[in-house]
């Protein structure tokens, strides 16, 4: 809104032309969300603590979690979403379909996560709403978002699936693009949700993936850079970099409070929203497979749960001491900080590999 308001005065004040640059507005988006979260974070933590909006601890989790993490406020995703929403409303082009799609996914999945957190807090258990009900809501929300996105999108190659490392390996998914997109959004949302189990564990990988896609969305929306990199040019995609900048700023501000020992957890309010948003960005930029690479840590966490469940149902035995896999290493005796930092290192490596796919074709 502020960006579009300032454009009305460009003819009178030439220095306002700087707001037309995506890089400048992305930077503003980053700093705006960062400052907002840092300002309101402490107040929200005190309020949540006073109102007993506390994180229920898994009874079957690592034993020291019951001692260290009990009494810690949750639903910190509210803080992230406030910073994200205000920043995007200030600096993005709100007439851009891609921005609206990202906002819809972020807010709708955030509300679903908030409802799940509310159920956990109300009944003082870590279960929340049932997995089937949560998945049903996710599917409905994703169907609505993707359907509107496809209906109003005039990009001719929208249904194409591009493969990294290959210039001409392209598959037209046709109508299968819709269920594929729904899978990407839901898969990404749940993968981030599963990763959010230790202080700061999910926050930094989300920042890294968002940073990668801030760059990817910028070059995808720039005909010169996209031609040079031999990736599809998609008009209007550059605006998504502002959304990604807001994610980075909000998460970085939240990390100030979420760093070990965490003063607040993001809860499903944050993890479902952020994961779904990254999935939406991957779809918009036509880099869904690159999303799986840069967010490989999230994929690993999700796969560890799937493997654990299948193994136990088929053989009665568990592959890991506990799933998701970060708890497996805790059970093996790794300190929480060691698990978190080593997983961050893995995320950095995967992010670099994901970016390298832009040039290695």
What does this structure look like?
The protein is mainly alpha-helical and 361 residues long. The chain has one domain (2-286). 67% of the residues lie in helices and 2% in strands. It has 15 helices and 2 strands. The longest helix has 29 residues, at 22-50. The chain is globular.
List keywords for this structure.
361 residues; globular; mainly alpha
Give me the secondary-structure topology.
Elements (H helix, E strand, L loop, with lengths): L1 H6 L14 H29 L12 H6 L8 H15 L5 H27 L7 H22 L7 E3 L7 E3 L4 H19 L7 H18 L2 H7 L10 H19 L8 H18 L3 H7 L1 H20 L9 H7 L4 H21 L5
Antiparallel strand pairs: 1-2
The helix content is: 55-70%
Count up the domains: 1
- So what's the overall shape? globular
Low-confidence stretches: none
Order of helices and strands: HHHHHHEEHHHHHHHHH
Termini separation comes to 39 Å
Strand content: under 5%
Strand order of the largest sheet: 1-2
Label the structural class: mainly alpha
Largest sheet: 2 strands, antiparallel
Question: How many strand segments?
Answer: 2
What is the count of DSSP helices, taking H or I runs of 4+ residues?
15
Any idea what the radius of gyration is? 20 Å
Q: Averaging pLDDT over every residue, what do you get?
A: 91
């Amino acid at each position: 809104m502020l960006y579009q308001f300032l454009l009305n005065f460009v003819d009178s004040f030439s220095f306002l032309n700087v707001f037309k640059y995506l890089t400048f507005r992305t930077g503003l988006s980053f700093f705006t969300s960062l400052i907002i979260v840092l300002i309101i974070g402490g107040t929200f933590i005190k309020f949540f603590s006073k109102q007993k909006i506390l994180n229920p601890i898994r009874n079957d989790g690592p034993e020291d979690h019951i001692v260290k993490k009990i009494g810690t406020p949750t639903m910190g995703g509210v803080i992230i979403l406030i910073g994200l929403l205000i920043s995007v409303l200030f600096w993005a082009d709100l007439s851009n379909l891609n921005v609206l799609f990202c906002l819809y996914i972020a807010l709708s999945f955030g509300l679903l996560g908030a409802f799940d957190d509310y159920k956990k807090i109300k009944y003082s258990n870590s279960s929340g709403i049932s997995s089937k009900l949560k998945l049903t809501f996710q599917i409905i929300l994703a169907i609505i978002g993707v359907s509107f996105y496809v209906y109003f999108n005039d990009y001719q190659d929208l249904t194409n699936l591009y493969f990294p490392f290959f210039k001409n390996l392209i598959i037209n998914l046709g109508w299968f693009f819709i269920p594929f997109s729904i899978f990407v959004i839901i898969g990404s949302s749940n993968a981030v949700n599963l990763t959010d189990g230790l202080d700061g564990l999910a926050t930094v990988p989300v920042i890294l993936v968002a940073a990668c896609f801030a760059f990817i969305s910028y070059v995808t929306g720039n005909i010169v850079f996209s031609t040079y990199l031999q990736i599809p040019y998609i008009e209007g995609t550059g605006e998504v970099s502002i959304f990604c900048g807001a994610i980075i700023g909000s998460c970085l501000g939240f990390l100030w409070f979420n760093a070990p020992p965490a003063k607040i957890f993001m809860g499903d309010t944050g993890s479902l929203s952020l994961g779904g948003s990254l999935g939406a960005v991957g779809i918009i930029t036509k880099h869904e497979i690159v999303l799986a690479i840069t967010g490989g840590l999230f994929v690993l966490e999700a796969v560890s749960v799937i493997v654990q469940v299948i193994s136990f149902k088929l053989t009665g035995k568990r592959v890991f001491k506990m799933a998701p896999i970060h708890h497996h290493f805790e059970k093996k005796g790794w300190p929480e900080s060691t698990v978190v930092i080593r997983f961050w290192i893995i995320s950095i490596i995967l992010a670099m590999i994901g970016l390298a796919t832009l040039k290695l074709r």
